[in-house]
Design goal:
The strands form four sheets. The chain has a seven-stranded mixed beta sheet with strand order 2-10-9-8-5-3-4. Strands 11-12-14 form a three-stranded antiparallel beta sheet. The protein has nine helices and 14 strands. The chain is globular, with a radius of gyration of 21 Å. It has helices spanning 13-21, 41-58, 72-84, 97-110, 221-226, 236-251, 255-275, 300-312, 337-353; strands spanning 2-3, 64-69, 89-94, 114-119, 138-144, 146-147, 152-153, 165-168, 185-189, 200-205, 279-280, 292-297, 315-316, 327-330. Strand 3, helix 4 and strand 4 form a beta-alpha-beta unit. The chain is an alpha/beta fold. It folds into two domains: 2-8 and 253-353, Aspartate Aminotransferase, domain 1 (Alpha-Beta Complex); 29-251, Aspartate Aminotransferase, domain 2, CATH 3.40.640. Helix 2 (41-58) packs across helix 6. It binds pyridoxal-5'-phosphate. Pyridoxal-5'-phosphate binds at residues 7, 72-74, 98, 144, 148, 168, 170-171, 189. It catalyses: O-phospho-L-serine + 2-oxoglutarate = 3-phosphooxypyruvate + L-glutamate; 4-(phosphooxy)-L-threonine + 2-oxoglutarate = (R)-3-hydroxy-2-oxo-4-phosphooxybutanoate + L-glutamate. Its EC number is 2.6.1.52. Its main location: cytoplasm. L-glutamate binds at residue 39. Pyridoxal 5'-phosphate binds at residues 73-74, 98, 148, 168, 191, 232-233.
């Protein structure tokens, strides 16, 4: 089976095997990771190594903190304004459905102090909109580095004076060559490129962490900084699997190598779509995502047939998001090249069978 799910997504086979081997007894302790106290030295080593690996993979400078939080990327939609908004406003670039949700959450909490700087809704998010005017009193600008549903991505991160950029990187963290120094905050739910659902990574520049008595404890970044992400029981198993995924990625040569592989995978699929008379990509070429690739067939009946035959042949979770329709192939880091090649053969066969 080739699993094209947008998330939770495929994990590397070797990581699953290692987790299986260690499932009943971690490091000869006679206990599963799931049974270890989070206060034990065994678990402390796991979380420390996970952080060290991530720092290495993303070249995270010392003045950035790495936090392990629960609640998914969706909870960060509220945590970001709570932690970052000072006297000014919060600016949002709406380049897709998730960016809109992030904005709506900030607006729910802070009303018109949350403002929209650019919005590609009219273009059905087939491009990344440009910010034309930047007000001076912004505490941060929020972007979505990769739009999971619509299949667009920032290939370069814009700078807007010295205003901190906050990025929801849930669907392309560790699969793009971004420089952490270009961001004030990066956050990402784990369940696409990092590990099982349950843990969310937040990388935050130290000087942005404010002292406040008003933020609920579990939403306050300072709580996680002061307690090493262990104010309460962290999602221990998810952090352990994330550590294994980071090790897998380091062994493969790190993010730069992964980007090359992702470019190859995505390049093959875009080429097949562009060369065909049946399939089309709805996204403007310069903004195409490497990790989420939507494609369409003009005829609804044929779309249904395509999805059904694909399913029967073991290509699963290819249906596009209900707001976009058509198909979407999500090719996160752990998705193998071979699966893309097989999908392309199937797409060609399907097209040829219809005499297109
Ligand atoms: N942001 C982006 C870009 C996403 O792709 C998703 C989920 O797919 C989310 C946020 C929501 O993440 P979570 O389910 O971890 O709250």
């Amino acid at each position: 089976t080739w699993n094209f799910s947008a998330g939770p997504a495929v994990l590397p086979q070797t990581v699953l095997e290692k987790a299986q081997q260690e499932l009943l007894s971690y490091n000869d302790s006679g206990m599963s990771v799931m049974e270890l106290s989070h206060r034990s030295s065994l678990f402390q080593n796991i979380i420390d190594e996970a952080e060290a690996h991530l720092r290495k993979l993303m070249d995270i400078p010392d003045n950035y903190k790495v936090l392990f939080i629960q609640g998914g990327a969706s909870l960060q939609f509220a945590a970001v304004p709570m932690n970052l908004l000072k006297e000014g406003k919060a600016g949002y670039v709406i380049s897709g459905s998730w960016g809109k949700k992030a904005y709506q959450e900030a607006a729910k909490l802070y009303g018109d102090r949350a403002i929209i700087l650019a919005d590609s809704s009219k273009e059905k998010h087939t491009l990344i909109p440009e910010v034309k005017e930047v007000p001076e009193d912004l505490d941060y600008i929020h972007i979505t580095s990769n739009n999971t549903i619509e299949g667009t991505a920032y290939h370069e991160i814009p700078t807007w004076n010295d205003i901190p950029v906050v990025a929801d990187m849930s669907s392309n963290i560790l699969s793009a060559n971004y420089d952490v120094r270009d961001f004030g905050v990066i956050y990402a739910g784990a369940q696409k490129n990092i590990g099982p659902a349950g843990v969310t990574i937040v990388i935050v520049r130290e000087d942005l962490i404010k002292e406040s008595n008003e933020i609920p404890t579990m939403l306050d970044y300072k709580t996680y900084v002061d307690s090493g992400s262990m104010y309460n029981t962290p999602p221990t198993f998810a952090i352990y699997v994330a550590k294994l995924v980071f090790e897998w990625l380091l062994d493969l040569g790190g993010v730069a190598e992964m980007v090359k592989l992702n470019q190859e995978k995505a390049g093959l699929l875009y080429k097949a779509i562009d060369e065909s008379n049946l399939y089309a990509s709805p996204v403007q070429t310069e903004f195409r995502s490497l990790t989420n690739i939507p494609f369409t067939i003009a005829d609804d009946e044929l779309t249904k047939q395509f999805l059904q035959e694909a399913q029967e042949r073991g290509f699963v979770n290819l249906k596009g998001h209900r707001s976009v329709g058509g198909m979407r192939a999500s090719l996160y880091n752990a998705f193998p090249l071979e699966g893309v090649q097989e999908l392309i053969s199937f797409m060609k066969e399907f097209e040829n069978n219809r005499g297109a």
